[in-house]
């Protein structure tokens, strides 16, 4: 049995609140609790899928981890290339600059994240110039190498983003992310803006790059079927909180949280002749500005009891490496893929 890899990133009780200001004097009237007490870790060369409905806080979590937002509270421990462990949450933006080489992001929209006035060579090469790594012919050679790595023709490096398709633009964004040879990549819904036919190509590319370059990745998505093949473990978020975290197999085949069960039921079966029964959640996702008391999921949970309405559950380890935030996690018999989901 192989030794588990070293923990590269550890997030402890991370909070990201945005103030709500109203009135002529823009006084603070409350907070949007976009991320509220998030805790998890990611090992070296591991892909952690971070999933949940739109508005659950997963993108905010990714941006806060990279310090694109200053966290309201909590700790973000990162193990640098030299082995030193640093709390990113306490660093200034100046102190963060050397770490920007090791920690990068792939953005969701492949068009708005690229400067339309710059050529592909300028877009991919900009991080190399900022960090004084390459210029001139050396820069051009590195850009050509990166374009080939993501399946683009280097002869097109003088073209502009609008001359490429959506899938090609996302490959440009990936090449830019890889330009500084990062160790940790946060991919923020990198395929959600693409045609279904192109999504698989980009997912396969990311999987191949992960294996070839030994990358560690947090893959953010709202669809479990997107992350199931690329992720080693899956973390499920709901209204700013983590509700379940385990291996991909455990989450998909043996979910322990009712919300995860509903997400899994939405994954279409591989066999088109199978008619599956999807669990449809009643009501709307609560506002993170005014989350419900007790368990945040209880207004939509078909298993909710009085305890759920008044007492907030904590994230506990119900099985080895399987963490769940539910009062009745060990009592419920929830269905996963291959369970009793045939109509």
Strand order of the largest sheet: 6-7-8-3-9-10-12-11
CATH level 1 class label of the domain at 1-102 and 215-343: Alpha Beta
Rg: 21 Å
How many helices? The count is 10
- In sequence order, what are the helices and strands, one letter per element? EEEHEEHEHHHEHEHEEHHHEE
Shape field: globular
Structural class of the helices, strands and pairings?
alpha/beta
- pLDDT < 50 stretches: none
Number of strands: 12
User: Architecture of the domain at 1-102 and 215-343, according to CATH?
Assistant: 3-Layer(aba) Sandwich
Give the overall average pLDDT.
90
Helix proportion of residues, in percent?
A: 25-40%
How big a fraction of the residues is strand? 15-25%
- CATH fold node name of the domain at 1-102 and 215-343: Rossmann fold
The name of the CATH superfamily of the domain at 1-102 and 215-343 reads P-loop containing nucleotide triphosphate hydrolases
> How many strands, which pairing sense, and closed or not: the largest β-sheet?
8 strands, mixed
Distance between the termini: 41 Å
Describe this structure in words.
38% of the residues are buried. Helix 3 runs parallel beside helix 5. The radius of gyration is 21 Å and the shape is globular. The chain is an alpha/beta fold. Strand 11 and strand 12 form a beta hairpin. The strands form two sheets. An eight-stranded mixed beta sheet has the order 6-7-8-3-9-10-12-11, sandwiched between helices. A four-stranded antiparallel beta sheet has the order 2-1-4-5. The protein is built from ten helices and twelve strands. The longest helix has 18 residues, at 196-213. It has a domain at 1-102 and 215-343: Rossmann fold, CATH 3.40.50.300. The mean pLDDT is 90.
């Amino acid at each position: 049995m192989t030794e588990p890899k070293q923990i590269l990133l550890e997030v402890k009780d991370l909070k990201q609140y945005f103030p709500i200001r109203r009135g002529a004097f823009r006084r603070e009237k409350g907070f949007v609790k976009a991320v509220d007490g998030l805790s998890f870790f990611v090992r070296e060369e591991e892909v952690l899928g971070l999933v949940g409905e739109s508005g659950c806080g997963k993108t905010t979590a990714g941006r806060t981890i990279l310090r694109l937002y200053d966290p309201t509270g909590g700790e973000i421990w990162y193990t640098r290339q030299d082995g030193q462990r640093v709390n990113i949450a306490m660093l200034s933006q100046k102190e963060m600059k050397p770490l920007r080489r090791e920690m990068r992001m792939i953005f969701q929209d492949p068009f708005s994240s690229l400067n339309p006035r710059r050529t592909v060579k300028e877009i991919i090469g900009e991080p190399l110039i900022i960090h004084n790594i390459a210029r001139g012919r050396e820069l051009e050679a590195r850009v050509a190498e990166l374009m080939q790595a993501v399946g683009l023709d280097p002869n097109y490096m003088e073209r502009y983003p609008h001359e490429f398709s959506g899938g090609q633009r996302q490959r440009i964004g990936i090449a830019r992310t890889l330009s500084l040879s990062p160790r940790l990549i946060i991919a923020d819904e990198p395929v959600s803006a693409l045609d279904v036919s192109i999504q698989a190509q980009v997912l396969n590319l990311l999987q191949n790059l992960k294996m070839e370059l030994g990358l560690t990745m947090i893959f953010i998505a709202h669809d479990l079927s997107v992350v199931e093949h690329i992720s080693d473990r899956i973390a499920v978020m709901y209204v700013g909180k983590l509700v379940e975290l385990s291996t991909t197999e455990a989450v998909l085949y043996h979910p322990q949280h009712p919300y995860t069960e509903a997400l899994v039921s939405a994954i279409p079966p591989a066999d088109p002749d199978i008619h599956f029964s999807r669990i449809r959640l009643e009501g709307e996702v609560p506002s993170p500005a005014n989350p419900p008391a007790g368990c945040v999921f209880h207004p939509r949970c078909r298993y909710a009891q009085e305890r759920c309405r008044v007492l907030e559950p904590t994230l506990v380890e119900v099985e080895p490496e399987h963490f769940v935030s539910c009062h009745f996690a060990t009592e419920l018999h929830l269905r996963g893929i291959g369970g009793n989901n045939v109509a």
